[in-house]
Specification:
binds ligand C2E; alpha/beta; 21% strand; 9 strands; 8-stranded mixed barrel; binds calcium ion; TIM Barrel; globular
């Protein structure tokens, strides 16, 4: 990206964040044992008048490079927790998954900030899962203290995009994760490619052997859904189940999915 374009985008992003013009959408993650909603993953959206819909893969790294990731994370936590509280009040039983940039974890008091926000909004921290991907600047293994503090507070930790990027077996062994999210690259390929199917099966087996839950992300077709179910995967997420939804659409989706799940004939 040229420097001028990056500065223009940065300026636009800073204004959108300050002006509360970002929004969150929520993508359901469902249990393959029961078909029930386990939690929703909050994903940030920026629709700009000038730049159009800018994907988070563009502006999150920009925020990281220019000291705006902490304000983005704090805005996201407040927005997601306020929404979560409204769902709780409406009798909707869901946990919440929230993406955290490895950079936000560098502050040792970050776990206290997250639990203070849980208390402030009255949401159950033991149903919160933070999703982490390793940043380019900081290996997750340097963040052991911070991650352990989250676990002491009962907050779950998922390693995102497992099998690609910067995730390694060493991190899985050393860090207190509770969930592995299998990268959609393998999931997409699995019904048609034996090697990808073998990877998915192996990651699920590995996760279970070390006491973690396995989530397949990017499930788009019945074939992918049935395959990961047959491999004893715990949780699924992807366009086949639901696209990321504006919060007001969640109740309607829950009803729709209950019927869809029955028609799939999976689970107990
Ligand atoms: P991620 O955490 O791996 O999120 C999953 C991405 O896959 C999302 O893209 C989601 O919209 C997309 N997706 C979900 N199901 C499917 C599917 O079935 N097929 C396909 N092709 N894609 C699917 P999105 O929302 O563009 O987010 C991209 C990345 O940006 C996320 O990857 C996450 O790393 C980051 N991100 C998103 N929101 C936040 C945030 O609030 N804070 C931080 N730090 N990072 C965020
Ligand atoms: Ca994620
Ligand atoms: Ca992912």
């Amino acid at each position: 990206m040229t420097e001028i374009l990056e500065l223009g985008l940065l300026d636009g992003f800073e204004r959108a964040l300050a002006g509360d013009r970002l929004r969150l959408v929520y993508q359901p993650k469902v249990s393959l044992k029961t078909g029930k909603l386990v939690r929703v993953e909050a994903l940030v959206r920026w629709d700009d008048e000038k730049f159009g819909a800018v994907p988070p893969s563009r502006f999150v790294p920009l925020a990281e490079r220019h000291g705006l990731i902490d304000p983005l994370t704090r805005w996201g936590l407040d927005t997601a927790f306020a929404q979560w509280r409204r769902w709780c009040d409406a009798g909707i039983d869901t946990g919440l998954a929230f993406n955290i940039s490895a950079m936000s974890l560098e502050a040792l008091d970050f776990p206290d900030l997250v639990s203070a926000k849980c208390e402030q909004h009255g949401v159950p921290s033991d149903h919160l899962v933070l999703e982490l991907t390793e940043g380019q600047t900081q290996p997750l293994t340097n963040l052991m203290d911070t991650l352990t503090r989250f676990r002491i507070k009962g907050i779950g930790l998922a390693i995102d995009d497992f099998g690609t990027g910067y995730s390694t077996l060493m991190q899985l062994r050393q860090l207190p994760f509770t969930e592995v999210k299998i990268d959609r690259f393998f999931v997409t390929d699995a019904p048609d490619h034996r090697d990808s199917a073998a990877m998915v099966r192996a990651i699920i087996g590995l996760a279970h052997e070390i006491g973690l839950s396995a989530t397949a992300e990017g499930v788009e077709t019945d074939a992918q859904l049935k395959l990961v179910a047959a491999m004893n995967c715990d949780v699924v997420q992807g366009y086949r189940i639901a696209r990321p939804l504006p919060p007001e659409e969640l109740p309607e989706w829950i009803d729709w999915w209950a019927n869809d799940w029955k028609s799939l004939g999976l689970g107990d």
